[in-house]
Amino acid sequence: MSERSHEVDTIDAPRISSGVEGLDVILEGGVDENRLYLYEGRPGTGKTTIALQFLLEGVRQGERVLYITLSETERELQLVAKRHGWSLDGVSLFELVPPETTLDPDRELTVFHPAEMELNETTNLILDRVSELNPKRVVIDSLSELRLLAHSPLRYRRQVLALKHYFTNRQCTVILLDDLSSQQNDLQLHSIAHGVVLLEQTAIDYGAERRRLRVVKMRGIKFRGGYHDFIIEKGGLHVFPRLIAADHHLAFEEEFTSSGIAELDQMLGGGLERGTNALFLGAAGVGKSSLALTYALAAADRGEHAVIYAFDEGRGTLQARAKTLGFDLQKHLKSGMIRLQQIDPAEMSPGEFTANVQRSVEHDGARVIVIDSLNGYMNAMPDERFLILQMHELLTYLGGRGVTTILVLAQHGLVGPLEAPLDLSYLSDAVVMLRYFEVQGKVRRAISVVKKRSGQHEHSVREFSLSDKGIRLGPPTAGFIGVLAGSPHFTAAPAVISVDGRDGVK
Hints:
Helix 6 crosses helix 7. This protein has 15 helices and 22 strands. It is elongated. By secondary structure, it is α/β, with parallel strands linked by helices.
């Protein structure tokens, strides 16, 4: 009865941090204290790093913490901490593996080695150290050594269960690490642990490895399910919780977002509404990125923060193109009103990119987001099967925060019938199509709004040009058919009025 009363008393107890901010977000506040948890994953997935972060958080809280290692030496752990910029001064390390100097025969009998001891003796050594230190947080690394000593699944389960009850009575939170070295999934261990976190590492055909984690089980705690990307860098694990757009909706004022080009705003029925997105679709070099850039510049001129995520172009190329068009991009970059971030598709996971966008919106106050281009975004995840779902969640999130999003997608080919590598038109609130077309031996550009979900728009096709005076749109290309197909035919007297000021076809 006393143990049951203790359970009831701690139901509403505050949670403690796991030491990893992203994991605490996934768990909606952290883990319950005085419980036993299992972190499992194959070698190289980051178990030791996340366990050290758990203990270092305890040190910051003024708690006694203990790291019991049966597989790594204290020297190895100190090296891991040093490379992350950590100090383990407040962490008690109990090493049950022989140091390198134990190859000396004179010292051979003075050290402990798990393979040479019975399971009970090893367990007693652990319990004696815990009783001596009386820590609030404990990490045991790793269970594979105990599993080998147990020789049988039944004995192994009973020993782990005994450890669980021992630590519960001592008011101690325990993390068990398991490298999944057994031939089969140890579901018996899952049933004992209060919570289970799985860490995975996968290698793609080209680029950096991808890491992700999943909370398999967490008793009595509501958590965000599914896989969550994470990276390991200096400072530890950085977890990027999977985005759930419904959790981030905010009320915002409904108004138009101007492109800074009066004719384009007119074609869009006054402009793009706040919280909507537009897809700029067309062949390579037709002017999609230049047109998207005008939205970021117009936002900066209004005093709003804009972010451009460049997957395809370098910073220098984008700045040079802006200068050619007469845009003063450099001024806004220096002031911070526009942030240009170049994305390396081979290095950044989808979860990290989504977290980057979310940080731009919530911490930097971005009101216009430009993703240039979706082709590069696709290349960032060649093995990902859920690109559409991830993009849908991201666009829904941005729409719910009142952010205007410009998406750029290059189609295959230059003239004639074009094919998009990905159909995102149904996710887009507006679709602006850009085309090359030929008139009397000259290649021209045409633009048309083919979809606008949130209101009326102009259905005409207009010619536009790129020059050192910016982007100029002409009147509708009356008298021609097939302009968007790239093969226009003159059918009537009205002329194409060239936007460069010279006469067109009459």
